[in-house]
Structures
1.
Amino acid sequence: MPVTGLFFLPNQGADSNPTQDILNRLTAHYSPTPAGSWTLSHRLFKGTPSSTPAPINGPEKSKPPGPRYLQILSLSHHSPKTYVAITATHAPSQTRVGTPASSNISAEAISGEPATIISIPQGASSEEFIQLILLKFGPLWQARQMLNVKEGLAFEIGDFRVRLGEVKQGVGGGAQTGRGALCEVEWVGGEADEEDWEGGGALIAGFWEGLGIRGARKVFDVPGLTEGEGSARQWCEILRVRG
C-alpha cells in the first residue's frame, strides 16, 4: 500500500494565496512533471444531541461523549467510489480540539476507535444518499460545511506523486470562500507495510520540509488498512471541522 501524507495550509488573509505559494516552492526546489488534474468534494455533518448515546453509568459518567461526525467524500483519483465515514463518539479529552497544527497523529489513532467507513458508487447513488441525509435524517445530522477542490494540479517528482489544489467552501455555483491549499504527497517508490511505515513517512516529511513551508496541518496515512479505506480515513481526518 502506498504511503501518503496530507498537508493543509490555511489562508492567512485576503491577499494570501497558499496554493500559489506551494506551487512556487515546488517549481523552485524540484522539477515537477505535470500529471493531469483532480477534484474533491466533501460534505460534513455533525451529530445532534439526540443522535449521541447517553454516557454510561460508573466512573465515566462525568465525561459526556463528544460529537459524532458524518462525512461524505469523493475524490476523482479514487473514482468510482464515494466514501461515507461516521466517527465514533469520544470523551472530550480524546478529540482533536486544540491539537497543534504540526501533529500528524489522527484522532482515531489517539482514541483507538476508528471511524466506520463504507463506500457507495459515485454519481446518482451518492447524490441520492446526500438527499436522504438532508431530507430524512435532518434531526440526527446537522449540515456543517461543504468543501471542494476544482481543477487541482497533479505532478510527478522523482519517487513522489504530488496533488495540489485550492480548497473552497460553499455550494457549487454560488458564492464560495477560499479556505486554503491541500497538498497530497504520495511516495510511489515502492509498497510499504507497517514495519516500513515510519521510513516512508520520513521520506514524505523530508520532501515537505524541503519546501520550507511552515504552518501546515499534517496528517499521515493509517497503516494496516486497505488502500482505499486508508486514504479516505486520512482525507476525512484533515477535512473535519476543528474547534
Note: Strands lie at 3-10, 33-47, 69-75, 81-86, 116-121, 141-157, 160-169, 177-187, 217-220.
2.
Amino acid sequence: MSNRIKMVVFDMAGTTVNEDNIVYKTVRSAINEAGFNLNLEQVLAEGAGKEKRQAIRSILAVYANIYDEELINSIFENFKQQLKVAYDREELLPQNNAENLFQALKDKNVFVVLNTGYDRATAESIIHKLGWKEGVQIDALVTASDVSKNRPDPDMIHSAMKRFHISDSREVAKVGDSTIDIEEGKNAGCGLSIGITTGAHTADQLQSAHPDKIIHDLTELLPLLD
C-alpha cells in the first residue's frame, strides 16, 4: 500500500467492546414495548451501527411501514432509560485482543480512534466502565452526537482526521462489525474499510457492503497495515 495508514477508526459495540448485543436487545425491547413483535435478527439487520434514533426509525419503516416521529422519539427515550440500567447492571469487556492491538498500533505511531452510533454520554460511560481513557488506551472518541450527519455519512471520520491533521483519507483505516461501518469508511475514502465478524453482522452480510477485507479477530488487522 503506497499510503501508510496513520490512523485506525474502530467502531465500539461488537468491534472493540464485547457487550453481547445489549444495545440491540434493548432497542428490540423498547420497540416491542410499543406494541410490536420483532426479533433480534431483524433489529440487527436494519439497526446495526446506526445512530440509535435513526436505527429505530429504519426498523419501523422496514418492518412496520411506520414513519411516526412522535412514536420514534417515545421509543428512543424508553430505549435510553433501559440502556442506562442495562449498562449499569451488565458486565462490559474489551473485545478479545482489543487492548493489545491498541498498544501495538501506538507502538507503530498509528492513532487509535473510537467512533460510535451512541451519543457522547453513553459512549463515555462505556469507556469509563472499561477503564479506557483518551490519551492512554485510545487517542480519541468521536460519537454520533458530536457531528451533524451520522453513518453512513463520513462526518465522524472526517472529524477525527481534522483533529490529528490527516488530510489524505487513504491514510485512514475503518474497522467495524456492521455494513454501515464499511459504507462509512468507503464514503470517507479510507484506504481500508474492514469488516469484522465479532458483532452485529455475519460475514455474508458484511460482504454485501464490499469491504476491502473481512477479519474474524482484531489481531488479523496488523498484517493488513504493513
Note: The chain has a mean pLDDT of 94.
